[in-house]
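F.,

This is the one I mentioned.
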């Protein structure tokens, strides 16, 4: 009977027990940080995050020295946990923290860019991926993203130019010249940029998709320049 009561109490009050577990782990984090045992602090913080991520986040903001060695390790724990929970806004917040602490860390920049993509902020993601390429010109993930971004942007712009021109029933020579200039501008900017990054992809990885996109760009260039 005693065993049944203990089991039932845990079933009824699991959150209380988990919160207590999280508090105990955070107490161990405090002790480990006081002893500058960063590995131990990270292990206990991982346990605290698993038990109560909200309390662990509050602990991070209020109790952790942002200039300490352990701070990026704890921020990463929160970023990964929120990412796994598909809370991309929170995950982005902590990956952004990491990029500010370690601005040349490619893994952090890529992760932050990925969160921006998942949040539907492609232009902000572009800035982060371009930063990666500034640090590592041959980074495969960044070149794929940037190349495809410029290609799709050029496709959208080209489609708008062609749609607007088709609305003119009897275009004048001046209107036709402007139409051709607009298409040439898209080729010289958007498509040209896309080629640059996608060709860089092929230099390091035999991507079938990148080659298909480059073939499409070549056909577009021939059609516009004829």
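My design for it:
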């Amino acid at each position: 009977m005693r065993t049944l009561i203990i089991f039932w109490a845990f079933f009824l009050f699991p959150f209380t027990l988990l919160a207590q577990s999280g508090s105990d782990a955070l107490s161990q984090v405090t002790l480990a940080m006081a002893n500058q045992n960063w590995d131990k602090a990270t292990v206990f913080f991982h346990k605290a995050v698993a038990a109560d991520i909200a309390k662990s986040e509050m602990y991070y903001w209020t109790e952790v020295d942002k200039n300490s060695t352990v701070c990026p390790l704890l921020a990463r724990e929160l970023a990964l946990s929120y990412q796994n929970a598909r809370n991309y806004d929170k995950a982005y917040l902590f990956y952004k923290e990491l990029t500010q602490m370690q601005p040349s860390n490619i893994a952090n920049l890529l992760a932050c860019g990925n969160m921006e993509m998942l949040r539907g902020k492609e232009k902000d993601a572009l800035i982060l991926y371009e930063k990666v390429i500034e640090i590592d010109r041959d980074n495969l993930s960044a070149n794929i993203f940037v190349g495809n971004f410029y290609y799709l942007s050029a496709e959208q712009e080209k489609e708008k130019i062609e749609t607007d021109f088709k609305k003119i029933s009897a275009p004048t020579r001046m209107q036709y010249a402007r139409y051709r200039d607009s298409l040439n501008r898209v080729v010289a900017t958007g498509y040209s940029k896309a080629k640059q990054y996608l060709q860089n992809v092929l230099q390091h990885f035999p991507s079938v998709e990148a080659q298909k996109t480059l073939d499409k760009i070549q056909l577009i260039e021939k059609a516009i320049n004829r």
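The radius of gyration is 26 Å.

Talk soon.
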